[in-house]
Design goal:
heterodimer, A: 327 residues, alpha+beta, 2 domains, 3-stranded antiparallel sheet, 11 helices, B: alpha+beta, Butyryl-Coa Dehydrogenase, subunit A, domain 1, Butyryl-CoA Dehydrogenase, subunit A, domain 3, 3 domains, 4-stranded mixed sheet, 4-stranded antiparallel sheet, 8 strands, 47% helix, 15% strand
């Protein structure tokens, strides 16, 4: 038992972190939010070139995977930099497309970053349905997995980088019996890792801020009431981290659901603390902290609310197989 | 990165499980915090020690098996999963023994450790004083030089297990008026039945004498019972405190077993949706604590030291333990009010967790200042 990232895994994280730091993701996020996708697409291709999406795609279909631990490593970095786009949904699509015919046809383009995918049960919102061209949808009535023929109008999320659309019904039948529980497990793992990265970024930014911000003649970070809130955020994140990687190793439904609860609750708690300790400046859309604050809220309920995930931990039968998002 | 145990580790797990299955008392022992319960738990320690299960991580010469941290974690998982009794010797085993391994003499280890391993000598800690709690370095109990040793005088308090224990260890001021309060302290071991010692048991919240006040009036301690150099006690003790908060005070096995019992209780009562989330949080928290510990154990085995990170650990388990027991008492309904259930005993015990071994406020200061790098300020 050696439950630590290997040197290669740490190096992979470091290289992604460096690449994303140089990419000035806040400006990419703001363009993406306005529906201007060029810089986001360019960033997407670089993330794909680093091998991130290939980690979810089997080698038989021009991928490198499935490698859930490395995928989790990558998604922590994507969350840390608030990268926009249907990241989790592209991973989920890779997990849904196990039928050899459609896998051979669709997966190589996902692995290479040429195509973005989105995925949602019928009637639920699909993330970035206007940009993704592989749009997968399913319902709970046994009508199988379909390639949706188009999307409805874009609705704005509280996280402006998340552009939500319904998918149009019908479309080509890809497989009558898609592996929904399996795909949901991948989606939850990626979401948990992304949320962990969001939380780590929020903590970092807030620690930096409270060391610089001076009131009553001293840095506000010297006040115990401030310190203790940040200590609690640190505890929550540091206990979420091994849950995410432990879940990536076992990939059991219960472990992944537990990791999603821990990581998303830690990120959300950190977001609340970050907002409070930044004060009014943190409450503005203009200040970049908002990009992470709003994402922490969105990820908390995406692909399984805390309640739904807690039920999955206890193996309480739910309707997750019918409706991965809203159960 | 992996979570796999080797065949040898699995064999060790099987051996421990098999022994525990054959030996763990069928009925729970009486409360550790009563005279009869203390004696019963002491007898259990002897039974563990007879087959070398009381201190598995110690070297064989002192009664252990010399196993590494991973096997210690495995043993603890099996121990609590088997429903085995609480450990009456834990103050000595978890706090004093690591100090002796780091700072004691060979003679001290040979004399102190074997009877600790068998439960023949049970140790109490003597840190706090009426005016020295979180600010431990302000302590005023004295150690005064005398022929061949020291005379201890003063008052210690909140001394866990001291009501029934045999010996105690703690810090005493051996040099008055040092520039810093952490200087001039000496770490000593003393006999709780020596002339000049008065032990006054204190009833904890449920009235059981789980701790005591110690009044010391020129209690003679030979030089052989000083650990480390005289005057260097703070440094010696802090290595113990780090250990206490770190990996070994509360093993994940304890909480995995408790979460399992809570889950069974919830299911036996019909799996109510109103308590589902809290039961799930208990299950999730136990797994998180296990994996966090596995990660730290892996770092430790890689040669890294675990320093202020142990404060994360202490806050997590102490708050987790209370939440778990609160949920259990709620599940029990009106039975949850009764004092004589295992859950009530565990609940009362858990309430002390955020207070002892460095209050959680002190731990949060450590996290903020030493892990996050925030500036020191007024407490």
């Amino acid at each position: 038992m050696r439950f630590l990232l290997d040197p290669e895994q740490r190096a992979f994280a470091d290289s992604l972190n460096a690449m994303l730091t140089a990419a000035d993701t806040p400006s990419v996020v703001r363009s993406w939010s306005r529906g201007e996708h060029a810089s986001g697409r360019a960033l997407w291709r670089r993330i794909a070139e680093a091998g991130v999406f290939a980690l979810a795609v089997p080698e038989a279909y021009e991928g490198l995977g499935p490698r859930p631990v490395e995928l989790a490593v990558a998604f922590v970095e994507l969350g840390r930099h608030a990268v926009p786009g249907p990241l989790v949904e592209t991973v989920m699509a890779a997990a849904l497309l196990t039928e050899p015919g459609s896998a051979k046809r669709l997966l190589p383009a996902l692995a290479s970053g040429e195509v973005m995918a989105t995925a949602a049960p019928t009637g639920s919102y699909a993330l970035d349905g206007d940009v993704a061209t592989t749009r997968l949808s399913w319902d709970g009535d046994g009508n199988g997995l379909r390639m949706a023929p188009g999307h409805g109008p874009v609705r704005t999320s509280l996280d402006p980088a998340r552009r939500l659309t319904h998918l149009l019904p019908g479309g080509e039948l890809l497989t009558p019996d898609p592996p929904l529980v399996h795909a949901l497990t991948w989606a939850r793992l990626a979401t948990a890792a992304q949320a962990l990265g969001v939380g780590l970024a929020l903590l970092d930014r807030t620690v930096t801020y409270v060391k610089q911000r001076t009131q009553f003649g001293v840095p506000i970070g010297s006040f115990q009431a401030v310190k203790h809130q940040l200590a609690d955020a640190k505890i929550a994140l540091e206990f979420a981290r091994p849950m995410v990687f432990g879940a990536a190793l076992t990939m059991t439904e219960a472990d992944v659901a537990a990791a999603k609860v821990m990581a998303c609750e830690a990120a959300y708690r950190t977001a609340r603390t970050a907002l409070q300790l930044h004060g009014a400046i943190g409450y503005t859309a203009e200040y970049d902290l908002s990009l992470w604050l709003t994402k922490a809220r969105a990820l908390r309920t995406s692909w399984g609310s805390p309640d739904a995930c807690r039920a999955a931990v206890l193996s309480v039968p739910g309707d997750v197989s019918a409706d991965g998002r809203r159960s | 990165m992996d979570l796999d145990f080797t065949p040898a580790q699995e064999a060790f797990r099987a051996e421990a499980r098999s022994w525990l299955h054959a030996h763990v008392p069928a009925a729970p022992l009486p409360s550790l915090e009563t005279e009869a319960g203390f004696a019963a738990h002491r007898a259990w320690e002897a039974q563990l020690a007879a087959d070398r299960w009381s201190v598995v991580s110690w070297p064989e010469e002192y009664g252990g098996r010399g196993v590494d941290l991973v096997r210690w974690l495995v043993f603890e998982e099996e121990y609590y999963a088997a429903g085995a009794p609480g450990r009456v010797g834990q103050n000595g085993i978890n706090l004093l023994a690591p100090t002796l391994f780091d700072h004691g003499t060979r003679e001290q280890r040979a004399r102190v450790l074997p009877p600790m391993a068998t439960g023949e000598v049970v140790w109490a800690q003597a840190w706090s004083e009426p005016e020295a709690g979180s600010d431990l370095a302000s302590l005023t109990s004295r150690a005064v030089r005398t022929g061949g040793g020291w005379l201890l005088s003063g008052q210690k308090t909140w001394s866990s297990r001291a009501a029934f224990a045999d010996r105690a260890f703690g810090l005493f001021r051996s040099e008055p008026n040092t520039p810093k309060p952490q200087q001039g302290l000496t770490y000593l071991m003393f006999d709780l039945r020596a002339p000049g010692v008065t032990v006054r048991p204190i009833g904890r919240l449920d009235g059981k004498p789980a701790f005591a006040e110690l009044f010391l009036d020129e209690v003679f301690v030979p030089d052989d019972d000083v650990i480390g150099e005289p005057g260097q006690g703070w440094r010696v003790a802090m290595s113990t405190a780090g250990n206490e908060r770190g990996l070994t005070l509360r093993s994940p096995g304890r909480f995995l077993a408790a979460a399992d019992r809570l889950l069974n209780l919830w299911q036996a009562q019909g799996s109510s949706p109103t308590t589902r989330d809290r039961v799930a949080d208990a299950v999730i928290g136990a797994r998180a604590y296990q994996l966090f510990t596995y990660a730290n154990a892996s770092r430790f085995l890689d040669g890294e030291s675990i320093g202020p990170e142990s404060s994360l650990n202490k806050i997590f388990w102490s708050e987790y333990d209370i939440a778990l027991h609160e949920t259990a008492l709620e599940l029990l309904g009106e039975e949850g009010e009764l004092a004589d259930t295992d859950w009530a005993e565990g609940y009362v015990f858990s309430l002390a967790g955020p207070i002892y071994a460095g209050t959680n406020e002190i731990q949060r200061d450590i996290i903020a200042e030493r892990l996050l790098g925030l500036p020191k300020g007024r407490r």
